[in-house]
């Protein structure tokens, strides 16, 4: 079975995903925050897109590895670093999160 990274798959049906002051442009794979384009590395975009499409539920690290890294062996540290980059792009403070909440021993929501 050939695995295709999220960032190179067929274009999503929705062109824009909107959250407060954020817009995810799914066709150009970029984030617009407060009207300013934020270019994201492919894996950072993939993680952001997956979280945006699966909001309102807790997502485990195993699920993230399967969905975003698709069978590639990655460490918890690599996932955490990518999550930090997503939070930074969103302008989200991990100590007082507005968009991404860490649920201890469960995952992120």
Question: What does it look like?
Answer:
- This protein is of the alpha+beta class.
- The chain has one domain (6-108): Orthogonal Bundle (Arc Repressor Mutant, subunit A).
- Helices cover 33% and strands 18% of the residues.
- It contains 3 helices and 6 strands.
- The protein has helices at 42-53, 61-69, 76-90; strands spanning 16-19, 22-25, 30-33, 36-39, 102-103, 107-108.
- A 4-stranded antiparallel beta sheet has the order 1-2-3-4, covered by helices on one side. A two-stranded antiparallel sheet has the order 5-6.
- β2 and β3 (30-33) form a beta hairpin.
- α1 packs across α2.
- The model has no long low-confidence stretch (mean pLDDT 86).
What is the averaged pLDDT score?
Answer: 86
First-residue to last-residue Cα separation? 30 Å
CATH level-3 fold name: Arc Repressor Mutant, subunit A
Q: Say how many strands there are.
A: 6
- The radius of gyration computed from the alpha-carbon positions, rounded to a whole number of angstroms, is 13 Å
Proportion of strand residues: 15-25%
Number of contiguous helices: 3
Q: Give the low-pLDDT segments.
A: none
At the first level of CATH, the class is Mainly Alpha
> Given the C-alpha coordinates, what overall shape results?
globular
CATH-assigned homologous superfamily: Winged helix-like DNA-binding domain superfamily/Winged helix DNA-binding domain
Proportion of helical residues = 25-40%
- Count of the domains: 1
CATH architecture designation: Orthogonal Bundle
Structural class: alpha+beta
**Quaternary arrangement of the chains shown?**
single chain
